[in-house]
Amino acid sequence: MTGEELYGVWAPPEAAWSAWAKPVLFAEGPTAAGPPAAGPPAADGPPGRDLAPATDRVPPADGETALVLDLAADLAVELGARLARDRGYRPVPLFNGCVGPGQPMVDSGAAARLLVRLAPVVSEANAALAPGAPPAFLLDHFRMARGQQPRPGQFDNRWLAFPPDFPSGPLLLARGVKVVVVVTAEPEPPAEDLVHVLLRWRRSGLRLLGLALSRPEPAPLDPATPWTFRRVWYRALATLGLRRSSVGGFGALLPTESLGGGHGYTGYRGGFG
Amino acid sequence: MADLSRRMVFEHGKWDPQLEDTPALCPAPMVLDRGAWETLARAAEALYAEALAAESELVGRVDLHGRLGLPRAVRRALGRSAREGASEGLARVMRFDFHWAREGWKVSEANSDVPGGYIEASGLAALMSAHAGGARPAGDPGEALAAALRRGLGGPARLAMVHATAYSDDRQVMRHLAARLERDGARVVLVSPAHLRWRGGLARIEAEFCREGVDAIVRFFPAEWAAELPASCAWWHLYAGARTPQCNPATALLVQSKRFPLTWDALETPLPAWRSLLAETADPARVNGGLDAGWVLKPALGRVGEAVGMDGVTDPAEWAAIRRSARWRPRWWAAQRRFEAVPWATDLGPLYPCLGVFAVDGRAAGIYGRAARRPLIDHRAMDVAVLVGEGGP
Q1: Which residue in chain B is spatially nearest to A174 when comparing CA positions?
Q2: Structure confidence by residue, pLDDT tens digits, B286-342
Q3: Which tens digit of pLDDT belongs to each residue from A52-85?
Q4: A271 part of a folded domain
Q5: B299–A248: do the CB atoms touch at under 8 Å?
Q6: What is the ipTM of this complex?
Q7: Chain B: residue nearest A246 by CA?
Q8: In contact, A54 and A213? CB cutoff 8 Å
Q9: Buried b / exposed e across B290-305, counting CB within 10 Å, b at 16+?
Q10: Nearest chain A CA: its distance from B61 CA (Å)
Q11: Which domain does A84 fall in, by range?
């Protein structure tokens, strides 16, 4: 299966949310991540990991709820496939880091391999999923490599989620979504990059809930407003959290002098010039 | 639209086809008549020649570096350039952003450091041209750059494609260029600048996944970011003393600065094209009458239209914050006289286009088109295929 064919499974053209599916892992080619693990395709997770309870606790896919699965990448992909097959949600992969050579900081290859392995499950589910099926956005909870810094010579493929990576609050509301449920492994505050997305959604009128897989019920989510919220230089400052040692990635601190000593601005990520 | 986006992803390597609620790609091309393209091409070539000459002069004019709004560490590196010689350049590429205004063609800025738009200028234009009644792309800047590198290196070579590896939107550009180079037998490695080591001015890759010398560097990492790299990678070689040639050497930042015009009157290099085409630029601290609606405020090293302040266009709170910052720290800002851009009538409503004309080794090489619903081109602008028709004088 080519990367394009695989993308067509996880982001079918007719699906309402497919435009947001990030193509990086698919475009680099499914083989870039190495061969998929041996064994028949399954959406039940590796031995010892029972995702059925998690699948069952997610609110019904009645069109009023959108999900953000902020989990370890392989868990997000597995749960996304299960939700497509069993609960009627459209998984939308938002993995925006490349696979990278050697032993990079983020194992994007794990997600890429599972996207291949679980493609038959999602392909079968697509037949029953309505084009307007509500979204389950898939993130890699460890996209920032657990706060680690790269080793000298290591490939830095960390990445952040930014508001333009998601549909806006008004668009979600216009399509009938009223609630966003952030699914995490443990009951912890959302990562700061995701907070910027969530707060914008809340300002638009969406209700936020958090569902930890270790807890039985969703609970209201009330993330604290970071001081960088809605600062025009947020995107630049977000990269300041990645220190200078990771200079291949975000770690190149944007020069504070060009930031005007904290009152200035700098370039946006989106290709230069 | 979905089909166009997918073809751009999988045939041309554009990995960012959606931006919040908006597709990144404009569903229709802009067609220039041939005369207009010839005008822009000659103008871009003139701007290129003048920019290169000015950069060369500015390397030795350390007394003027303070006017450019550059970080201290960068200025120290440029000081090295003046003493040790600027790092060697190879296959120079620049992009000039043109706008059609009431007073004719105007340039809002030049991107002489790490210009983007290769994928859109080639792939999007190629896809659109199949449906545009004979109109053709103005050129393929990626192909032109690859050819220039081949000529400069004289044969298959080993190249380090240096970029911010965590940014997939930068990596896609490197992959796009790498494919063209590899097709002609080059060995290409995509790395971070932190993976470079220098000895005697010659660069090597020292990474966990690759250890080898390189014949040239293709840089897509902003020059001013280099100052934040660890000393172990001797980043100043991007500016000074390198014998491994670069596309582009970091001294390109001297002309990249939006405050470059503040050095003109002190330079010997004649700049007639720049003077006639670039909107008037001033130090915000010296604008008589204050920073009123007649001026646009830009960060000296701003990119992709970020943090550009335009009264009546920029969000009022953001405009107020920008004006405040420009008042308090004017040396990090440039004030540019506002011109009245003429909108382009489309089925999507009026759009304000920006035509980024590439020049590679002095020759016009294609156009990266963008268009926005407001007269400010930033990350929210759509990418537009710009084609050249047969009509015109």
Answers
A1: B21
A2: 987 777 779 999 999 988 777 899 999 998 988 999 999 999 999 999 999 999 999
A3: 777 888 999 999 999 999 999 999 999 999 999 9
A4: no
A5: no
A6: 0.91
A7: B194
A8: yes
A9: ebeeebbbbbbbbbbb
A10: 21
A11: 3-36+59-222+229-254
